[in-house]
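Encode chain A's predicted structure.
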Amino acid sequence: MSTRSKGIRAFKASIVFKLSVWYAGILVALSLIFFIFFLSSARRNLKKISEDELKDEMNERIVLFKAEGIQSLKKAIVQDSTSFGGSNISQSILDPNGRILFTYDSSEWGDFKVDPVLLKSAFNNDKIIFSITNVPGFKHKVRVAYARLSADELVRIAIVIRREDNFLNSTKKIFIETMILILIISVITGGLMIQHAMRRVIAVTDTAISISSSSLDKRVLVGQEGDEINHLAKAFNSMLDRIQQLVKGLHEITDNVAHDLKIPLTRIRLTAESLITVGKKPDIQETAGSIIEESDRLLEIINTTLEIKAIETGSAMWELTEVDIAGIIQQASELFQLVAEEKSLTLQVKQLVHFYVNADVRRLQRVFANLIENAVKYTLAGGTIVINMSSSGNKVAVEISDTGIGISPESLQRIFERFYRADKSRSIPGLGLGLSLAQSIIKAHGGIITVKSTKGIGSTFTVILPGREIEGRTIQ
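Encoded structure for chain A:
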């Protein structure tokens, strides 16, 4: 295939060409509809004018016949036919059987036959009967009028409607020529307008093509027009901002993973080295237990990270069922009741509201278990943890409050980031993934999770989920 042929095919496949064709096609279609409407209206008006003129002529014949008789009518027919032109008009006086009693027209009319149906209709009423017919030898149609003069006589006038036909034919010709001109102009102007608009889309495309991991700071220029292209540019720039943040976060995650995995891996290595020098069996068993513990910690980090990624990318498998969230909260609180008592903490469930949510029970249990576990972990002996539920319309709120060490303002902004742990919390065992996983699970359920905290006073985590309340079912 030649370069020229490829260029033509590429142009035909372009949006500019397609939109130009659509633009021209719609414009021509609208013009055609307008022309059809105009032509139909013009034809009706011309018909009415012609029939009114023919009706006036016919009424004059009737009045003349009644006033002065048949002879005066014949003279008037001769005079009118002579002045009007015999090739343009035919006037005849007929009897009830359709025989011509008198006529005066040119030979061009030939054998202009009488329509028996119209003849009978005209003799049976006082109205003027109109019709359009073709006469051999005439290029144009003929409009015919029948009117009764008396019980034995009828006058027929036929006029060639050249004027109407010529006007309509000229209008059609003008329309065709105009349509060709409109089509050419619309294709050119439409193409130029669309191409001008597409330049800005092409700018977005070029920016997208030029984007790489090292050039995420590039952005599309946004004009002041405020049109759809500007909205597209703004949306594209917002997407680039988000991608840049995700890439930056990915780099941070990689660094954090390397940092957090280094410690357990080092412990595993040191523990394994100690096996060489340890000879007693109890010591070997204890060392093996340490290896298993650190390995489990490492696996938990990896598995949790993979689960968060699967949830956020939409590839996670869900087992959704309608469940009473009060039961999940009750089970989670009972699970940590003994741990709280051992640490001299008061774990109190203030109020439970029976509320149905469409959820993955296993993952939702993990969220609330994590939140209660954190409250227990970061609350000092003698402190209090309160779990409270409330509902409003189709939403339920679960609050888990503690009187723990609290979170600093700078850490509060990053508390849901993966692997982020406040400095003081690094001395407490943990993965730094629990809150990030909880947020991902709650978002996937259509809910939100928020936190309020004051350093040294305590924290309150609130989970809001959509669902439906069970009427009249509240536990104090």
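Residues 15-68 form the longest helix (54 residues).
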